[in-house]
Every structure is written in C-alpha cells, then in structure tokens.
Design goal:
With 180 residues, this protein is an alpha+beta fold. Helix content is 59%, strand content 14%. The protein folds into two domains: 99 residues, Peroxidase, domain 1, CATH 1.10.520; 71 residues, no CATH class. It has eight helices and four strands, in the order ααααααβαβββα. The longest helix has 19 residues.
Length: 180
C-alpha cells in the first residue's frame, strides 16, 4: 500500500524529531532544516529532480553531494535516507511537520486571526496572549487576515481548532434559531 505524501512527511519528521530530542540537537536540526527550506524556495524543482527515478543516478548523486556538503551527523544521515528512498520531493512536508513539533516543544502555537479591519499592535498582542492561554501554550503567533464579510469580531484558527467570535456567525446562528 502506497502512503500519501502527508503521511510520509509526518513519519519522517517524527523520526527525525525524536532522534534530535534524544541527541539534544533539536535547535541545531531546526536551523539546518531552515537553511534547506531556503534552498528549496530558491530552487522549487530541487525535490522533484532528486526524487525522479528517470534521471541519471550519478547526476542526482552529484547534486545531492553538493546539497548535503554543509551538514554532518544526524542531519546528514537523515538526508541520505530520504534521498535513498526517493523522498526528497517530500522535504517541505517533512519540514512543516518537524517545525510544528519544534514549536509545540517550545510552547509556541502558530495560527491565523481573521478580522474585518486591521488590528493595532496592542489588540494583536492581547489576542495572541489570550489564544495562548486558551490553548494551553506559553505563546501564540498569529498571522493576520482581513475579511470584511465577517462584519466584526475575530476568528482564530490554531492547533487544528477554530474559535469563531465573528458577528457574521452570530447573526447566522440567530437566523437559524428564528427560522425554526
């Protein structure tokens, strides 16, 4: 049975994260992954090139050797395994899951806040503090989105949870109650 890319990304990231924790290298591995993510952003086809079974193995090996040159130890071994199993095209999924686990370990939750109008810095800080408290984290980092259709209030999405305090959803709820 072939696994979907999201499952593969989660499994590889989980393995790398657990090994990094065991070796006390989570910060170093995270920094290595950040630098690799930047390379993938600069060369969006890199993962496909390194995973394409139709390409010449020697050419892929040379490219891989250049890519892994700055890395050693756990990170180097991990990248070699990912390369060997033709999963370099899943790197961004692996990184995203590792980053989620890393942030979780650091007590940080990442999410979005949708408002009808932009928040000022004090409002955003207060909302991040309240979100962190509600979700039992030390800190929250929320990316702002503006959507005038919510009329007012906020919608916070973080850690696979939605806190909908928008005026639009309250009005929709009242309409449904009155229609009964």
């Amino acid at each position: 049975m072939k696994l979907d890319k999201a499952t593969v990304g989660k499994r590889y990231a989980k393995a790398l994260f657990e090994l990094a924790v065991e070796d006390g290298q989570t910060d170093e591995i995270y920094q290595d992954l950040l630098s690799l993510r930047n390379i993938y952003k600069e060369i969006p086809t890199l993962g496909d090139l390194l995973s394409d079974v139709r390409l010449d193995k020697n050419e892929k090996r040379q490219l891989m050797d250049t890519l892994v040159e700055p890395f050693s130890g756990l990170m180097l071994r991990f990248l070699e395994i990912v390369f060997e199993y033709n999963r370099m095209d899943d790197f961004l999924l692996i990184f995203a899951e590792f980053e989620r686990r890393y942030d979780d370990q650091k007590g940080l939750v990442i999410g979005t806040v949708t408002t009808a109008v932009p928040l000022n810095s004090q409002q955003k800080e207060a909302l991040e503090s309240k979100t962190a408290s509600l979700l039992h984290y030390q800190q929250a980092k929320l990316e702002e989105k503006i959507d005038p259709t919510i009329i007012g209030g906020v919608i916070v999405e973080a850690n696979h949870q939605v806190i909908d305090g928008s005026v639009k959803s309250r009005l929709d709820y009242l309409r449904a109650k009155l229609a009964r």
